[in-house]
């Protein structure tokens, strides 16, 4: 066992840091604040030994999206982020559940429905169906879609409220302070500033969102949030990866430097009718955020059968709702004696021309239209390749075209076309590897035709799964995709360096070298295709199917690179390639191309057969 452990550490330089960083996400600690037990379980997982069944569960959620407006590119980014995590965990052999849905209660919805002349439920259903259609169209592989207007959710919320109240954490009192209807949020005086509206009238706004706030004074129910400040600090300080990236972890700790006032958790029913009534008090409506946050428990099976999945909960949220998820939600859970989420993955926003998307500016990016124009996998790849969790990212159509053409059409697609072309591989099989042509580095017989750059490429590709795994786990997907793209470029350089199209003219040694070049290149492509499955499922499946890889050979456990180089048998060697279904990714036209000059649609260049 120790020998195996040391081998793992040698083969992955980041393993020690990875283990520490990700311990709190791999199993439930005996307490919300201890990661020692998680570290032990993580080590077991990394060593490949049997893992308890409960540790094979993974529960990932998006925020539930507010139905006051149509979906935009930021909503799709949240969904694609959670989707890749779900697919990645399935590839690793986990039992994964993935939940998304819509948040349908609150004053904003009540007002929007009234303005549209519709009853609130019909209004919500119409918008919720738009989200569902977008996600289905973009291959978001959720296992459950929750709406807060569902009966199962109402039952969960009522039970959760009753638990908090029975434990003495909810009491009736008077709330007086600032409230933002658009944010559905209560604010302290330090969070409010002065501004002028479009008519020049002086108003108060939220300093964080810029939305108008109003002074509110009413009798309602309060949650004793003030009692949880020290426990929240303890949780965050004891679990440095509980909120990721690190910038947002620090932001939450900074918020906790100030006192936490008790939180109003209901509104008078005379003001807000569209919501779940407070159990036992029909004059009050449960605060929309308490209602909404419980959705994560609802889908897990709360209150009867939730522990299996809730112990493995991970959230993906935008930075604008961090406070609700990293302060209010953990405090509610602590009050209810429930485990805290393993990780809260936070991402930043998408802007256009450096400005926040808004209807008034006319710069809202329609994710469905763009996924139809640039393909579903194209948009998924762009968002995850360009999205940086801790900084805002700027969307531009031209940038999409340049990136996809360069990395999917030319680099990855060009490599596949080259290495499967009938002119180089007339038998259309996975070629044989010749150890005399590509001997192990450092052996006495190291007189093959491989050069130092080729061995460097092998080292990079062999280390790639560990690098990608590290970045997938930390939701720095752009770093994982950059690492893959860097290896793809190295493999293209390998093929270009040895010009296989000039080999095989009757010379037996040349033929062996040609087959070896193609074998190594196809092995690299197999690695890239397997690693890209969570990101671009259709493209990855097309690539792997062209290589003749069977469904059971596409898992994370099948990432055994170039076993012939290690003197082992390769199951792919001599196997027929899959059918040629055409170009891997069609070249996209620039959106600003001159009009009036019709051009034929370009496609990636294919090697002549």
Automatic annotation (TrEMBL):
Residues 449-557 form the Methionyl-tRNA synthetase anticodon-binding domain. It catalyses: tRNA(Met) + L-methionine + ATP = L-methionyl-tRNA(Met) + AMP + diphosphate. The keyword Calcium does not apply. It is found in: Mitochondrion matrix. One of its GO terms (cellular component) is mitochondrial matrix. Residues 589-609 are annotated as: Disordered. It comes from the Eukaryota. Its EC number is 6.1.1.10. Keywords: Aminoacyl-tRNA synthetase, ATP-binding, Ligase, Mitochondrion, Nucleotide-binding, Protein biosynthesis, Transit peptide. InterPro entries: Anticodon_Met, Met-tRNA_synth, Met-tRNA_synth_2, Methionyl/Leucyl_tRNA_Synth, MetRS_core, Rossmann-like_a/b/a_fold, tRNAsynth_Ia_anticodon-bd. It is an enzyme of class 6 (ligase). Residues 58-419 form the Methionyl/Leucyl tRNA synthetase domain. GO terms for biological process: methionyl-tRNA aminoacylation. Signal peptide: none annotated. Residues 597-609 have a biased composition (Basic residues). One of its GO terms (molecular function) is ATP binding. The keyword Thylakoid does not apply. NCBIfam families: metG (TIGR00398). Belongs to the class-I aminoacyl-tRNA synthetase family. This is Methionine--tRNA ligase, mitochondrial. It comes from Salvelinus namaycush (Lake trout). The gene is mars2.
